[in-house]
């Protein structure tokens, strides 16, 4: 595990951008899985002017690692947000977008393997220690891509985002460990205690991201606030 601490959110985002573009610049097909949410916003803002309409990045294919479907909408929350933040403004070809859905999740790992595997995955850290859609109380570390049915009793249940009985899908720890380069970005003092737990505490299902300590090629990029409690 390599931990990089940068002064602030902008510098953290710049470091993540440089690592991703380095991987994406390889002279071969490159497969990357990227995250939605607030944390990667500046990473994408910095990448878009470089990637947009550039033939140098036509070799890059994109995958979402989790998905929450929405009734009445053709696409789920994750891929919709990734499109808004990055794929659409970067003018990524639809041929280079490979969607994980509730319907095709069972073949996700096989499809990625046939495509040559994921060269990189960019993820964030949940305030409760989750990664991707691997949540406390519903995660088992031996899972590949799997489906979760929400009972409404989970401690992370959010009635504003989901309904009881909702099914969503995520790549599990076993799938994530197949990624050639795993990149975690975290900013802000509100996640500093959890950063300490998942990076320097024991591997614990109560904080699913703690398993990532064991990934063979794991880069963590933090701002100073998120790194506050690290030894």
From TrEMBL:
Gene Ontology biological process terms, A to Z: carbohydrate metabolic process
Pfam families named in the record: Glucosamine_iso (PF01182)
Ranges where the Glucosamine/galactosamine-6-phosphate isomerase domain occurs: 12-213
Record InterPro entries: Glc/Gal-6P_isomerase (IPR006148), GlcN6P_deaminase-like (IPR052960), NagB/RpiA_transferase-like (IPR037171)
Xref: Gene3D superfamilies: 3.40.50.1360
Source organism superkingdom: Bacteria
PANTHER family with a match to the protein in the record: GLUCOSAMINE-6-PHOSPHATE DEAMINASE-LIKE PROTEIN BT_0258-RELATED, GLUCOSAMINE-6-PHOSPHATE ISOMERASE
Protein name: Glucosamine-6-phosphate deaminase
